[in-house]
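dumping this here before i forget
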Amino acid sequence: MKNTYTLGIILALGAAILNGTVGILSKGLFSSSLTPAAVSFYKCFIAFAVLSTFAILNSNFRKNIIMLTKNVKAIALCSFLGIFVLYFFETTAYKYAVVPFVVFILLGSSVLTTFVFSSLLLKEKKNKLKYVGLILLIIGLIIMALAQGATGGLSTGAILAGIAGIGYGLFLVLTKKFSLEGGLSLIWYFMLFGVIYLFVPFYKEGIVMPEFSSMPSLIALAIFPTIGGFYCTTRALNYLEANKVQFLELSEPIFATVFAFIVLKETVQGIEWLGAFFILIAIYISEYSPKPKENFGHLNK
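structure:
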């Protein structure tokens, strides 16, 4: 039991690290001919192509894909929330705001969504320390939103990031609710429906082909956060509560801030560090909150 719990923590943190690269890779692609809709579509399409190639070469992968057809309606709904809503609105938000700001707002709204709907739909119990952690999280996010480098108030970037976060939070809860498992096979389905959904805004904006110089970044965007991030998240949900996974993945803004500083020279300044501190404390409280004694807890989930 301890080993699976630890594995869940590692997977959730791995997802945070991989997802922390989305902002810097996306902003780099904006300097080419690609719009946010094009970036969202192409990274999903490349991920789908990579997984489809693997499916052709691996018979077990194909069998797992066939086995998941019974859950296709639930997968389609989760894909809409976790692929279309998350990818399209997050990527568009990066056009209007700095990377750390978008990530903090996105995950903050995601946590609030997960906290509420995991209680309503999953009947997950929340102890007092989790509520304290949530309050500290909200304080940290408010500080980040009002800080000097946050582009001020409810900007377009904040609204878009908030919508993306709501979609991601619902995705986490419903993936757990529908007991969707299957690793890369499940992600193949997410990408399949994601390509269909994301093609709509891509087509409406006008289809553009990526430049050759853009391909390395697009491939990296498809492999690391798109395939790797989703794989770690969906696997972590097999071992931890949805709310726990989301709290651990709140470390993503820290990684995203570091990556943005190194690559884009976008930095957290002044009081924004206080907001980041509150969020780290919230994660700590969530992770080390008292757990039920043996014979209960995760055994009854």
